[in-house]
Hints:
Layout: H1 2-14, E1 16-17, E2 31-33, H2 39-53, H3 60-70, E3 74-76, H4 85-96, H5 100-124
Parallel strand pairs: 2-3
Antiparallel strand pairs: 1-2
Helix pairs in contact: 4-5
Amino acid sequence: MRVVHFIRNYADERGLPQPAAPRGVDNVPTVYLTSDTTKTNLHQQYQTSCTEAGSRVIEITAFKEIGRMCLPHIRIAGPRDDVCAKCETLRRGVMDAVTEEEKLTATDSFRNHILLAQKVKMFDT
């Protein structure tokens, strides 16, 4: 139960919940952890919290298995999943542009958005 609570709390604090569940899944929306999160780093944070609380620590294989079985809707985002809705819209705009001018305008908008997002991310860390 400690593992489930730890992962759930971590996802509540840092996860990116999706607005709706994928088709054919138990109506539980997926929560993506950022792509720079790894299961090993997550387990290390779990170990630290258990050590501080004086609780027993389980090994990483059991940690991964519990997460996979009990919390299948919490996933680590791949590089293509870890984008905001505006990124996706701007990327589609580049793909859908017909003329050279439309392509350049869409590409500039997309580039400016990415640069702004990088500045915000650097400021947050």
